[in-house]
Design goal:
Blueprint: E1 3-4, H1 36-45, E2 54-57, E3 61-65, E4 69-74, E5 81-84, H2 85-91, E6 99-102, E7 106-111, E8 114-119, E9 138-142, H3 143-147, E10 164-168, E11 171-175, E12 179-184, E13 192-195, H4 196-201, E14 206-212, E15 217-222, E16 225-230, E17 236-237, E18 248-253, H5 254-264, E19 270-276, E20 281-287, H6 290-294, E21 301-312, E22 317-321, H7 322-329, E23 336-341, E24 347-352, E25 358-364
Antiparallel strand pairs: 1-17, 2-3, 2-5, 3-4, 4-16, 6-7, 7-8, 9-14, 10-11, 10-13, 11-12, 12-25, 14-15, 15-16, 18-21, 18-23, 19-20, 19-22, 20-21, 23-24, 24-25
Helix pairs in contact: 1-2, 5-7
Length: 372
């Protein structure tokens, strides 16, 4: 598959204009840090294990790191200390808004008759310095634009596989080489691969987001919290050509479709989607594995039928990994889901028809054993 370091033009895909950068911070509604306990929890959530099991607290700021993403919080903590993040996190499950007292060796947290004395770390704990957000590289975004792609992302780097989101002027893209998803939303003017660990830290609401492709750094800012992470290095697959204009397609009710997918995956994660009948209906059919049939069983099947709201073109059938598709569609909105394919019927294009920003998926078909 071709790769891209920057987006190549494609006349078949409509352009989503890049957001205009701003020279000043964007005034957007944010989830504010409510109290000291909230601020401390955010720090522990940003910490990692072993050498990264540390939170650094100063008078007006706190920071932590998981090895890939640093979390920095602006808050009047009122004390300075280096603490074990895992111990602090466990402590905060028992208290919410602690009172703090500090000695040379310990930090004491008390609330409602509960008292915890946390020993200060004496070893040097230095967090990486990956640069500060640059105002003219930040744009208004939503964390959900990228987090919606998390179920699609692989966990490790592989052939044409990156555990991260391709953020570019045309939006946000994720793929594991079998399923490809595209959120058509304003993206950064220079593209880069944002690691999944960074995406996992993002809130679902409004954020300021930006990246510096030359420096290899991404930033996000929300409510007094700044996340900074290193971009993944590599040539992202040329994804635009995978999207196509179906010559046969149906629209079905979203909740009915997801219910059908959940039903048939009880037998097998793959299923055959069939459009047939008069009036036409969508049938989802799955069968258990060849291994089970080889052991003498007659086999198990599951079938669910979904009424069609709209239908265009000839009937079709294609076998796909319905489990992957279900994960990708779980957090979608709107009433209808569009499903289309081509004459070859080796892939399907899926999109929620009322969802904004627009969300499109392409899922490759599976050749071989299947049940109708």
């Amino acid at each position: 598959m071709p790769t891209e370091e920057a987006e190549a033009p494609n006349d078949e895909i409509s352009e989503t204009p890049a957001a205009t950068p701003t020279d000043t911070p964007i005034d957007i509604p944010v989830e504010q840090i409510e109290h000291l306990g909230d601020a401390l929890k955010r720090l522990t959530q940003g910490a990692g294990k072993e050498n990264w099991d540390t939170v650094l607290i100063e008078e007006g700021r706190g920071s932590s790191c998981n090895g890939v993403v640093t979390t920095e919080i602006t808050y009047p903590f009122g004390f300075e200390a280096k603490l074990a993040a895992s111990v602090l996190k466990s402590t905060l499950t028992h208290i919410q808004i602690p009172k703090i007292s500090v000695t040379e060796a310990r930090v004491t947290l008390t609330e409602s008759g509960k008292k915890f004395q946390l020993g200060k770390l004496v070893r040097d704990a230095e967090l990486p310095t990956w640069g500060k957000p640059v105002s003219d590289q930040m744009l208004m975004a939503h964390g959900s634009w990228m987090s919606r792609l998390l179920p699609i992302l692989p966990n490790q780097v592989g052939n044409m596989r990156f555990p991260g989101v391709w953020a570019c002027p045309k939006g946000y893209v994720g793929t594991d080489s079998t399923i490809l998803a595209w959120i058509e939303a304003p993206g950064p003017s220079a593209p880069g691969i944002v690691p999944r660990q960074f995406v996992e830290r993002l809130p679902s609401g409004p954020i300021q987001f930006g990246l510096d492709a030359a420096a290899g750094v991404a930033w996000a800012h929300e409510g007094g919290t700044v996340w900074t992470g290193l971009l993944l290095q590599g040539n992202y697959p040329a994804w635009q050509s995978a999207f196509f204009e179906p010559d046969r397609h149906v629209t079905v009710e979203r909740t009915e479709l997801l219910s059908a997918f959940r039903a048939v995956t009880s037998v097998n994660r793959t299923a055959t989607l069939v459009i047939e009948g008069d009036p036409p209906q969508l049938r989802c059919v799955s069968a258990d594995s060849i291994d089970l049939r080889a052991r003498g069983t007659k086999g198990s099947t599951a079938e669910a039928t979904v009424p069609i709201m709209e239908h265009y073109g000839e009937a079709f059938q294609v076998r796909v990994d319905v489990h992957r598709l279900l994960l990708a569609l779980e957090k979608t909105t709107g009433r209808g889901i569009f499903i289309g394919t081509e004459a070859r019927m080796d892939r399907i294009l899926v999109r929620p028809i009322e969802m904004q920003p627009a969300y499109r998926l392409v899922l490759m078909g599976i050749v071989g054993y299947g049940a109708i």
